[in-house]
């Protein structure tokens, strides 16, 4: 047990999928895994361990934003020795060629700050994804017939952003989409020599104002779970 995760030693798998929403963790575990066990409910941030095609997997909610994700990922790595960590979540499109429902695989993520800024100080560290995971996720997504983009994203500290000028610069510099967690996941994975990837579905678009209809959200989320599992184990 850790401060924020109630799982007993050995109850967390080497491979952990990290949706922001704990109820998504529950849905994904019940839909895709066999022999599912609830391993965490501290603060309602549900985590489940089960198997997929015989491979042990944990699906643990991360909460929203990098400070929340950082707590769970620090404990998953340092206390439970998680080796492969894959975020599955939504993002806002920032380029005209990026459409609603498309999948974004973040090769790197730009930020204003992360929970790791205190140690990087003046360094503009460029956190990057694990290439093997990214490569496999790309092929898994393409095989599903989903339009897939690989490139830089923006991990923001705020959802209600008062800096439209910053978004303009991101778009100008080719950033594909905005979300709020990936950069710190990559920082921590690189610091502790683990594998990480963010698999994201475009749920809204900052330029067009378009949004994913609610009836499509479950299917998109399910596709991301399958892409993440295939990336981890194929
Ligand atoms: N901003 C930040 N995070 C997001 C967004 C957004 O527009 N859409 C989905 N996650």
Plain-language structure description:
The chain has 234 residues and is α/β, with parallel strands linked by helices. It has a five-stranded mixed barrel. Helix 2 packs parallel to helix 6 and helix 4 packs across helix 7. The two termini are 31 Å apart. 49% of the residues are buried. The mean pLDDT is 97. Bound molecules: hypoxanthine (HPA). Hypoxanthine binds next to strand 5, strand 8 and strand 9.
Give the names of the bound compounds: hypoxanthine
Poorly predicted runs: none
Largest sheet: 5 strands, mixed, barrel
Radius of gyration: 16 Å
First and last CA, distance: 31 Å
**Class of secondary structure makeup:** alpha/beta
Describe the structure concisely.
The protein is of the alpha/beta class and 234 residues long.
Question: Can you give keywords for this protein?
Answer:
234 residues, alpha/beta, 9 strands, globular
């Amino acid at each position: 047990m850790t401060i924020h995760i109630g799982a007993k030693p050995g109850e967390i798998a080497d491979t952990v999928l990290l949706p922001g929403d704990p109820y998504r963790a529950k849905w994904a575990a019940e839909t895709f895994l066999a022999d599912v066990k609830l391993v965490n409910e501290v603060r309602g941030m549900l985590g489940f361990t089960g198997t997929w095609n015989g491979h042990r997997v944990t699906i643990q909610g991360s909460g929203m934003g990098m400070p929340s994700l950082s707590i769970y990922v620090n404990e998953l790595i340092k206390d439970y020795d998680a080796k492969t960590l894959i975020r599955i979540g939504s993002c806002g499109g920032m380029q005209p060629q990026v459409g609603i429902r498309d999948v974004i695989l973040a090769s790197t993520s730009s930020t204003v700050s992360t929970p790791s800024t205190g140690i990087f100080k003046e360094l503009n560290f460029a956190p990057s994804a694990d290439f093997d995971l990214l490569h496999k996720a790309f092929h898994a997504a393409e095989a599903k017939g989903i339009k897939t983009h690989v490139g830089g994203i923006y991990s923001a500290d705020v959802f209600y952003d008062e800096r439209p000028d910053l978004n303009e610069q991101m778009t100008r510099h080719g950033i594909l989409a905005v979300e709020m967690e990936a950069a710190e996941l990559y920082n921590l994975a690189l610091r502790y020599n683990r594998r990480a990837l963010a698999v994201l579905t475009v749920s809204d678009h900052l330029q067009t104002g378009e949004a994913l209809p609610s009836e499509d959200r479950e299917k998109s989320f399910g596709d991301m779970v399958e892409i993440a599992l295939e990336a981890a184990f194929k």
